[in-house]
Amino acid sequence: MRRSGRHHYTPVQGELDLRREIAMRHFELTGQRVNESRCAVFSGAQNALFSVSQCVLDRGDEVILIEPYYSTYPATFSSGGATLVSIPSSSSRNMQMDPEAVIGAITDRTRAIVVNSPNNPIGSVYAREQYEPVVKACIDRKIWLISDEVYLEMLAPEDRASPAGIPGADEICITVSSLSKSHRMTGWRVGWAVGPEELMRHLYNLSLCMIYGLPPFIMDAAAVALRMDVNIAGTVRESMNRRRKIVVEHLSSLPNVQLLESLPCDGFGDSGEGLIRISLGVKDELLREACRRIREFVLTLVKPRNADGGG
């Protein structure tokens, strides 16, 4: 790196080569055609979301979040003084976004709506039909639609949907993504935002004061990762599906019990209360053992009630 000179200041908005690769990957995933001037590089998707929030939200604005939401969202989107408006999800709707509820929460102070699909933490996947009325409402009322799509590439191509690809979304949709999940490059801290050129100018000014450009060798690695297209996301998708089946096999037949009695379970919004999140990010055998232990423990909780004739 020293001999090549790739250790100096870089363009604030991101290296041209990387932004071109991002624009191409964005089109592949969303169907929205953009060029490099509509892409801005940040130190991870989290930094991109925070930067976007600083540019589009002000004190007194309202921002709509759909529960359950990623645990950093409240701080990210309220840091400039905006008020959070949470839309609950329910198991009766399979924890899916309800477009009518989202649109019904819009007021004169609504400045942005945030969507996240596939959803962290619950994994819900939104369909194009769910996005369409929300996009139309945002266009009609001049509201920003911020789409966190860091997990989108993990889906099979036929299952992917993005509000950015819906006609008319160009001027209201801001798409945020990264290499953290699709390429397992969490420690490299590379993310981006794709949106209207006017927004890019404001993001440029903020980045100028905040990060002053990412390290060049980091962006080199990111461009190569996007260009190589080694389908790491597909490999991860296969392993996650396999591990999900392990969990379902071991735990789906268990009776409902309350495993968390004293710890709050609302870090993802009120809709997350009473839910338990199980990570699939371990080897298969370790996951099987964990599920076996959970199963054994749950059964010890229900046996005394059954012995007394209870349900």
Provide a descriptive summary of the structure in words.
- By secondary structure, the protein is of the alpha/beta class.
- It folds into two domains: 16-228, 3-Layer(aba) Sandwich (Aspartate Aminotransferase, domain 2), CATH 3.40.640; 232-307, no CATH class.
- 40% of the residues lie in helices and 12% in strands.
- It has a seven-stranded mixed beta sheet, with helices on both faces.
- α2 crosses α6 and α8 (232-251) runs parallel beside α9.
- The radius of gyration is 21 Å and the shape is globular.
- The protein starts with 15 loop residues before the first helix and ends with a helix.
- The model has no long low-confidence stretch (mean pLDDT 90).
Cα(first) to Cα(last) distance is: 67 Å
> Mind telling me which CATH architecture of the largest domain this is?
3-Layer(aba) Sandwich
Number of self-contained structural domains? 2
Number of helices: 9
CATH C-level name of the largest domain = Alpha Beta
Q: Order of strands across the widest beta sheet? A: 1-7-6-5-4-2-3
Mean pLDDT: 90
Q: In total, how many beta strands?
A: 7
